[in-house]
Design goal:
The radius of gyration is 26 Å and the shape is elongated. It folds into 2 domains: 3-280, Hypothetical protein af1432 (Orthogonal Bundle), CATH 1.10.3210.10; 308-476, GAF domain (Beta-Lactamase). It has helices at residues 3-16, 18-31, 37-46, 49-59, 74-81, 83-99, 106-128, 134-142, 146-154, 157-166, 173-181, 185-195, 200-206, 214-229, 236-249, 253-273, 277-280, 308-323, 329-345, 372-377, 389-394, 408-413, 416-422, 455-476, and strands at residues 348-354, 360-367, 379-381, 400-402, 427-434, 437-445. The longest helix is centred in the N-terminal third of the chain and has 23 residues, at 106-128. The protein contains 24 helices and 6 strands. Helices cover 60% and strands 8% of the residues. Helix 1 (3-16) crosses helix 12 and helix 10 (157-166) packs antiparallel against helix 11 (173-181). The chain is an alpha+beta fold. It has a 6-stranded antiparallel sheet with strand order 3-2-1-6-5-4, with helices on both faces.
Length: 477
């Protein structure tokens, strides 16, 4: 294995594309734990306001939500669209965000266009063949040339040298890559797949192992369609492939053509939705392109504003979860925090869980804090002999709104330990219980933005907490 290849693998993993590599690892970890995958993926999304906004917008696009069921929360997206579809979104968003700043190279834009076109075509074929996991087919097809995409993003002068070599007479891409780089970019894709543990299906495709798995055939056909379309939809190659699609699906050639053309239009809309407009325009469209594909541009807000519809959706999600036989406490907590954070419009919210010895409250989940590490390191005494507001609320059945001008009793509970952890300023706090036994505390504030807390916000905070406490008792049996 060439030293140059390994240097590129390390460079891309640690310096150039760490965001994408991290997202892949998070998703791979959550996917391997079926009992907690939904809630853990929800937390991973909610910790990033930009990703949250993009996932919700994509969840409402024609491509992912043909029934036009309005989705306003991450938990609703997971419940309605399923783990695999949301996973597909997260990987796609992360990939585009990793390469978007480098799309000055036309080669990168073309590779992204090809990747999304092939992925949408492959997923459509997998769906029509009624394969078990069409989303896995989408991801494998999307990442089949991740090595090429990554290289051209960060190649610099070496990329210019390779482009020049490829223009030599009778020169092939593979030969030019070996001469300039010392390895084929196809091998870089395989090594990144192994390093980032992308997909067993993708690795099988990259190794070009003989297989009767229709999933690999979907991916192969998807890429062939994407590449032939660049020569024209009426080219002999495209016509041959449409005929091959008809045979693969067992449908008439005209129906196969409509399927392929529709997927191309979907691909252009989806690519635009992910923020890769330059690539979207490079996907060849058949005549009379459909305008049905949603045109979505992600937008983010620095601090969530109160949204009554999100509150309603979160409460509905809570009811749906409790009605399910396999309800998950972690998912309940993610719905609770999303409802408070995005629905009530708070700057920060955290759930702290009592340690087994009941001596400390340990951060479990949080939104709006500077980092995930902060939540993990959040730890405060729960000892009633060393009173602070967190320890006090564990003994109090009533939620508390700490104002800018607290009473002397409240002031005595605002210790330096608390100030070091959460700063100073007004906040809401309430205990979380199972069968009236305290298990933790929920805290929320607007101290980062300096916005005022009000009666309506407090009432909504209390209501969410009460519903969550009833839900915790129900799920605990």
């Amino acid at each position: 294995m060439s030293e140059e290849l390994e240097l590129w693998v390390q460079r891309l993993s640690k310096n150039s594309m760490p965001l994408f590599a991290h997202t892949v690892q998070v998703i791979a970890t959550t996917a391997s734990r079926d009992d907690s995958s939904f809630s853990e993926l929800a937390w991973s999304i909610l910790e990033d306001p930009g990703l949250t906004a993009q996932v919700i917008k994509l969840s409402n696009s024609i491509y992912y939500n043909a029934a036009s069921m309005r989705i306003n929360t991450v938990s609703r997206a997971l419940m309605r669209l399923g783990f695999e579809n949301v996973k597909e979104m997260c990987l796609s968003i992360s990939l585009v965000e990793s390469v978007l700043p480098n799309l000055h190279r036309k080669k990168v834009a073309l590779e992204i266009a090809r990747a999304f076109h092939a992925a949408v075509q492959a997923k459509k074929l997998a769906t029509l063949r009624q394969l078990a996991k069409p989303e896995e087919v989408f991801i494998a097809a999307l990442l089949t040339r991740i090595g090429q995409i990554a290289f051209w993003c960060f190649a610099g002068e070496l990329g210019d040298e390779l482009e020049f070599a490829m223009q030599e007479p009778d020169q092939t891409e593979d030969k030019a890559e070996i001469e300039v780089l010392g390895f084929r970019l196809e091998r870089l894709t395989l090594r990144l797949c192994q390093e980032w543990k992308l997909s067993g299906l993708l690795e099988s495709v990259l190794r070009k192992a003989k297989s009767t798995d229709p999933s690999t055939e979907c991916i192969s056909l998807g890429y062939q369609i994407a590449q032939s379309a660049e020569k024209g939809w009426n080219s002999p190659a495209s016509k041959r492939l449409i005929k091959k699609v008809g045979e693969f699906l067992g449908i008439p050639e005209q129906e196969a053509a409509e399927c392929v053309y529709g997927a191309a239009r979907d691909a252009a809309g989806v690519t635009e939705s992910y923020g890769a407009g330059a690539s979207s325009r490079l996907i060849p469209l058949p005549e009379e392109p459909s305008t049905a594909a949603a045109q979505i541009k992600p937008e983010t807000k620095e601090y969530p504003k109160p949204d009554h519809y999100v509150q309603l959706c979160s409460l509905r999600d809570l009811s749906t979860l409790l009605a399910a036989k396999d309800g998950d406490i972690n998912m309940l907590l993610s719905i609770l925090l999303e409802g408070i954070y995005r629905g009530i419009g708070m700057d920060r919210v955290i759930f702290a869980l009592l340690t087994p010895d009941r001596r400390f409250l340990q951060g479990k989940y949080g939104l709006g804090w500077n980092s995930e590490k902060y939540v993990e390191e959040f730890r405060i005494s729960a000892d009633p002999e060393r009173p602070n507001m967190f320890a006090h609320i564990l003994q109090s059945p009533k939620p508390i709104w700490v104002t800018d001008e607290p009473s002397e009793k409240i002031l005595s509970l605002l210790t330096k330990e608390m100030a070091d952890l959460i700063g100073c300023g007004p906040f809401f706090i309430m205990r979380m219980c199972i069968k009236n036994k305290a298990i933790g505390v929920i805290y929320a504030d607007r101290n980062l933005s300096g916005r005022d807390l009000n009666e309506e916000s407090f009432d909504n905070f209390v209501f969410f907490g009460q519903q969550a406490n009833m839900g915790l008792t129900t799920l605990a049996g």
